[in-house]
Specification:
Elements: E1 2-6, E2 9-12, E3 17-24, E4 32-38, E5 45-51, E6 57-59, E7 67-72, E8 77-82, E9 91-98, E10 111-112, E11 116-121
Parallel strand pairs: 2-11
Antiparallel strand pairs: 1-3, 3-8, 4-5, 4-9, 5-6, 7-8, 9-10, 9-11
Length: 122
């Protein structure tokens, strides 16, 4: 049972990145998926969530209009398309899963990946 992130990297401000997360071994009860991030010295925070069943999404205000969360059930994959990146977006990005509702607090999520680093330079 795991989720594995990929797609991070180093980019310039204004550029884009697409993160991917592949879930394996998670059964249909793990209906809530989310992207979270943690910058050095800061707490982990939610970026966006998506319901695995119906695709309902939630975005934190600081990414609205810039990031898009999506999924492909046939590939058991979750994505985060990030555009107009700024240095403030620099962080380790994590994919996470839980059974039930898409809560926003990271503590509700039980399956976490190792993270993928996103670094944005000005």
């Amino acid at each position: 049972v795991q989720v594995v992130e990929s797609g991070g990297g180093s980019v310039q401000a204004g550029e884009s990145l697409r993160l991917s997360c592949t879930r394996s071994g998670l059964d249909r009860h793990f209906t809530a998926m989310g992207w979270f991030r943690q910058a050095p010295g800061k707490e982990r925070e939610v970026v966006a969530t998506i319901a695995w069943s119906d695709g309902q999404t939630y975005y934190e205000d600081f990414v609205k209009g810039r990031f898009t969360i999506s999924k492909d059930n046939t590939k058991n994959s979750l994505y985060l398309q990030m555009t107009s990146l700024s240095p403030e977006d620099t962080a380790m990005y994590y994919c996470a899963a839980r059974a039930g509702t898409c809560y926003l607090a990271p503590s509700w999520y039980v399956i976490w990946g190792q993270g993928t680093q996103v670094t944005v330079s000005s």
